[in-house]
Amino acid sequence: MKKIHFAHPYMINPTHQLTVNLIGVGGTGSQVLSALGRIDHALYKLGHPGIQVQAHDPDIVTEANIGRQLFCESDLGLNKAVVLITRINQFYGVNWLASPEEFSNEDGSANITISCVDSVKSRLDIEKQLQKAKRGMDHSNLHYWLDFGNTTSSGQVVLGTPLDIKQPDSKKFETVSKLPLVTEMFNLKKVKEKDSGPSCSLAEALRKQDLFINSSLAQLGCALLWKLLSTGSVDYRGLYLNLETMNVNPIKL
After folding, report:
1. Domain segments of the chain as ranges
2. pLDDT digit string (tens) for 173-220?
3. SS3 letters across the chain
């Protein structure tokens, strides 16, 4: 019997715009933010209220970011979240928010948390913040955590549910109520990583990450999110991408 996860009912028929916390708008996050603009516009055209995004990133734009991330010369020295949110608001006519600081629970919970961070510590810190999230109004209840992570030419996207999501009765499918979080899939506390620091040039940055790993991962991960929101279900909970072999392997339920 095929396994399937049905989205939380509020994702499909919300009383407000779905709220999204996007943590990190660098290599992958800047591409994800752009895709979220498309998702919001498409949902609205389908009669859905759409999404309301708040982007969190304390970093400023540097020379090394131009060319690999969605920034230009005139953005140098400005905060990444502020630059990109201003651009999205002007392009789509929305009123999304920018937080030029590290994400914390005080920023408020959201229906969907999306993390595009580059360290194990950041993911563990996010998990701690999400554990503090309080159940309250519908527009602030957390239902999904979508995490993007990559190395030089490979990466993964993991869609998880902090809590079980009640599934409808089905004779056709084996329904799955709990999707493991990225911190539950991998024992991140045992991962040893060295902080190599920020790149000083695009050439140095490209030695650390392939030019198209971020954008490829962002498109595939946002396609998963789009499927969840537009069809109300998913039959996989993430994916692995390898640009060296041009392979994309789904993570099954």
Report:
1. 3-252
2. 999 999 999 999 876 665 555 544 455 444 455 556 788 999 999 999
3. CCEEEECCHHHHCCCCCEEEEEECCCCCHHHHHHHHHHHHHHHHHCCCCCEEEEEECCCECCHHHECCECCCHHHCCCEHHHHHHHHHHHHHCCCCEEECCCCCHHHCCCCEEEECCCCHHHHHHHHHHHHCCCCCCHHHCCCEEEEEEECCCEEEEEEECCCCCCCCCCCCCEECCCCCCHHHHCCHHHCCCCCCCCCCCHHHHHHHCCCCHHHHHHHHHHHHHHHHHHHCEECEEEEEEECCCCEEEEEEC
pTM exceeding the 0.85 threshold for the entire prediction? yes
Q: Does domain 3-252 have CATH number 3.40.50.720?
A: yes
